[in-house]
Structure formats: C-alpha cells, structure tokens
C-alpha cells in the first residue's frame, strides 16, 4: 500500500505541475508578459514545482535533510540523466544566451549554495539571500525579455481561454502539488525507515527522480520534436529555480533552517557543483552536446546512483565503485573534455585562417 501511495503521489505531482504551467503561462501571456520571460520563468518554475512542494512538505514535517537532498539530487539528475539521454537521442545545440548567461549563472549559484551549506545547515538568513537572488534573477529575465519581440501568433493561441479558466488550472495545479507532495514525502520516509535507509539517500534518489519527471518529459519531447535548445534551457532554468526558489522558500519556512548530513556535504554537494562545472567546457565547445558527451553524462549518473544505493544498503560494492569512478570514469571524462577543447580550438583556427 505504501508503494501505491508513493506512485500516486508522483502522478499527482506530475499532473499538478502540468496544470500549473498551463494556467500560469496563459495568464502571464494574457497580461502581456513576453513569451521568452514565460519560458524562462513560468515553465522553469512549473517544472520545479514538484521539488518545491516536496521540499516545503519535508520542511514542515521536520524532514529537513530530505529538503536539501531533493534539490541536490534533482539538479544532478537533470544534467547527467536528462541532458545525457536527450543528447544520445539527438545531439543538443546550445544557444549563445545559454552559454554566455544561463550556464555561468547556474554554476555561480551552485557554488554559492555549496558554500552556504558547507557548515551543515542552510539557515533562514542563507535562505533569505537565495530568495532575494531569485527575485533579482526573475526581474532581470523580465527586463531582458521585454527587449525581445513578442511572438503574437503563439501568444494569442495560448491566451485564448477565458481568464477564470486559467485561474482554475492554477488552483487545481497547486492543490494537486500539495496533496502529491504530502503523499510522496510521507511514504518515501516510511519506505526509507523500513529498509534502514537515511532520508537523505531517499531524497537523492527516489524523490529526486520522481520530482524531476516533468523536466524529463519536457526535455525529451522537445528533443524528439527538434526543439533541442528548449531541452537544454528547461534543465538549466529548472536547476537555477531549484537552488533559489526551492531551497530559499523551504529554508525560510523551516523553523531552524535546513540541515545537511556529512555525506551530503562531502559527496553530493561537490558532485552537484562538479556536474554544473562540467557543463561549461562541453557547452562552450562547438555550442553543442554530442552523443558521446551524452553517453558520458549518462554513465556518470549510473555510477553515482549505484554508489549511493550500494552505500545505503552497505553491500560492500561502494569501494570498487569509488575506485572505478576515480581511476576510470573521471579520467575518461577529463580526456573527453580536453580532447573536445583541443578539437574546438583547431576548428576555430581553421575558420579564422
């Protein structure tokens, strides 16, 4: 029964996020907000809404480790699994705006969160800093979006529904998110306790993957339809909102802030920052993520998840897995990045010659 309720919670989260995005996007467009801003804010926030709902629910329930673990796990999953799988399906083209603006912002915020949580707690002051940055970032996107020409045809189609109908979509979306988050957190914790697994590990795996399903669907559908820039933008935007909105809001709500155990500080947060940094050279070279690089991302996620599960159940495989990662996977990744940089440099020299 616990597993059925867990699945039900995931389904409600996914459908609730879809309702929220649909209603909020139409309301925003009908109010004259540019479609670029809607895509970078409403859609990114909507696909991050499950993480927000779960982390707030965890903060209220006192499961503060899960609140941070959910965000960290989701951000790692978004980049390595979603972008990796999308690039395997079709090489991803990266826009100049993402390269010059959004990826550096994601890296900077990941580094800031790593520093704020390095003492084992995200205090209310830390959370307030993230919320202020969220407001500043959203305002910046709005001002930037105002400079872009409106896509009137798509906007008219999106805003065609009556305003009250869009308000109902938003209300229904929030309601489903709240119910789904409660079911997910309660039953995930119950499962963790029954297996003797920490709530942090559950947050990094089951909950993180479950709450990232909207990003999975959005990015893979965009890739199949040839809208590959959207696939990347959705992931980068969602990661930024996870760090600023999810951690910021849930950290303000939690009476004593959000806590992080030693494993989160020493392993998972560094992995999240490393994954963000890994995007920089791979995205900058050739403005594309190739199939080979996608396979590399995907393998990195499988090894990381296998290590987490092995450590949680104390199978004894974590030592060889750690050695494989340290002496095989990471060196191969470094070689791939270096070779890509060299190839890109040669291509640029050839074009300028």
UniProtKB/TrEMBL annotation:
Record PANTHER family: INNER MEMBRANE PROTEIN YRBG, SODIUM/POTASSIUM/CALCIUM EXCHANGER
InterPro entries given in the database record: K/Na/Ca-exchanger, NaCa_Exmemb, NCX_ion-bd_dom_sf
Location in the cell: Membrane
Protein name (record): Calcium/sodium antiporter
All copies of domain Sodium/calcium exchanger membrane region, residue ranges: 3-142, 167-309
Primary location group: membrane
Coiled coil: none
Keyword ATP-binding: no
Parts of the chain that traverse the membrane: 35-60, 67-89, 125-143, 163-185, 243-265, 271-290, 297-318, 324-343
UniProt entry keywords in alphabetical sequence: Membrane, Transmembrane, Transmembrane helix
Membrane topology: Multi-pass membrane protein
């Amino acid at each position: 029964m616990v597993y059925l309720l867990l699945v039900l919670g995931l389904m409600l989260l996914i459908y609730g996020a879809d309702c929220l995005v649909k209603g909020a996007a139409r309301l925003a467009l009908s109010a004259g907000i540019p479609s670029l801003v809607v895509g970078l804010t409403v859609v990114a926030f909507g696909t991050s809404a499950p993480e927000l709902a779960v982390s707030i629910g965890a903060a209220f329930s006192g499961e503060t480790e899960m609140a941070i673990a959910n965000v960290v796990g989701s951000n790692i999953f978004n980049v390595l699994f979603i972008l990796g799988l999308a690039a395997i399906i079709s090489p991803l083209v990266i826009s100049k705006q993402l390269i010059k603006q959004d990826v550096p912002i994601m890296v900077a915020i990941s580094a800031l969160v790593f520093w704020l949580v390095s003492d084992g707690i995200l205090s209310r002051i830390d959370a307030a800093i993230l919320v202020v940055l969220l407001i500043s970032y959203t305002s910046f996107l709005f001002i930037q979006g105002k400079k872009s020409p409106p896509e009137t045809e798509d906007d008219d189609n999106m805003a065609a529904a009556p305003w009250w109908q869009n308000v109902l979509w938003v209300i229904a979306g929030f309601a489903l998110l709240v119910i789904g988050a409660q079911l997910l957190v309660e039953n995930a914790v119950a499962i963790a306790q029954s297996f003797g697994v920490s709530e942090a590990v559950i947050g990094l795996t089951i909950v993180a993957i479950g709450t990232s399903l909207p990003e999975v669907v959005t990015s893979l559908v965009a890739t199949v339809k040839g809208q590959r820039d959207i696939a990347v933008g959705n992931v980068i935007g969602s990661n930024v909102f996870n760090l600023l909105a999810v951690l910021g809001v849930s950290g303000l709500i939690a009476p004593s802030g959000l806590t992080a155990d030693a494993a989160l500080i020493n392993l998972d947060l560094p992995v999240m920052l490393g994954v963000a940094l890994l995007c920089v050279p791979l995205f900058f070279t050739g403005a594309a993520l190739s199939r080979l690089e996608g396979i590399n991302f995907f393998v990195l996620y499988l090894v990381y998840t296998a290590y987490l599960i092995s450590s949680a159940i104390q199978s004894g495989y974590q030592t060889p897995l750690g050695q494989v990662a340290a002496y095989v996977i990471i060196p191969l990744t470094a070689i791939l990045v270096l070779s890509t940089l060299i190839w890109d440099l040669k291509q640029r020299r050839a074009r300028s010659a």
